[in-house]
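Before drawing any conclusions, I looked closely at one protein's amino acid sequence and its backbone structure tokens, quoted below without any editing.
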Amino acid sequence: MSVPALSINNLHKSFGPAHIIRGVTLDIEPGERHAIIGPNGAGKSTLFNLISGGYHPSSGSIKLRGEEIGGMKPFKINRKGLSRSFQVSNIFSNMTVRENVRCGVLYSMGYGYGFWRNVGNLHDVQRKTAEILESVDLLDKAQLPAALLPYADQRTLEIAITIAGGADVIMLDEPTAGMSHSETERAVALIKQATEGKTLLIVEHDMGVVFNMADRISVLVYGEIIATDKPMAIRGNEKVREAYLGDEADAIEGDAA
């Protein structure tokens, strides 16, 4: 039996008297695309911050490929192979698209930071950067300042930066938020391609995206996971319908018919 890519056991997080995460237990298998859904205030962002090191757990365990990471600093977790994006675009707006991605590639290839190094001479870095930009369809915009990209492309660039570090566990926080229908379709296709063979954990409010992309879905309500299953089973789960999906599940079924 394989070791889960990510294993969460009886995880709790409180802020003073407010108990936000209430005993979450979840295993995510290597190569799985797993979605976390739930109403606003359910604790999804808190859970993401706990996993990626933004918050320390009040109690419980978070393991990355069997190694405890709960309470570890974010940069250390990243170096162990877990990378995440954020709800709000988190890019270097004054740098070019290529330079944004190249920053992540440098560390993933073991170069680190060197003030006097001419990165233009690092052909392996340049090649890997170009490969990532091509995989997310941004190679033709590589020389543009990131601030000049349209919103959807900025979100795409953030995904590229997230995967540039070479992590095999990728966490995306609402990657299609604010996108049009056509932009969302393009983003989903790019995410699938760019994360092929990696483990993906995604928080997303667009149920069309979730049911299109996820192998399994966990439903978080008031800090507790009330169900984890394959998309079809989640869609038909009466407890989930009552707590969150409601008529939206019927709409998704209608779209798929």
User: Anything to note?
Assistant: The domain at 6-256 is CATH 3.40.50.300 (Rossmann fold). The longest helix spans residues 151-164.
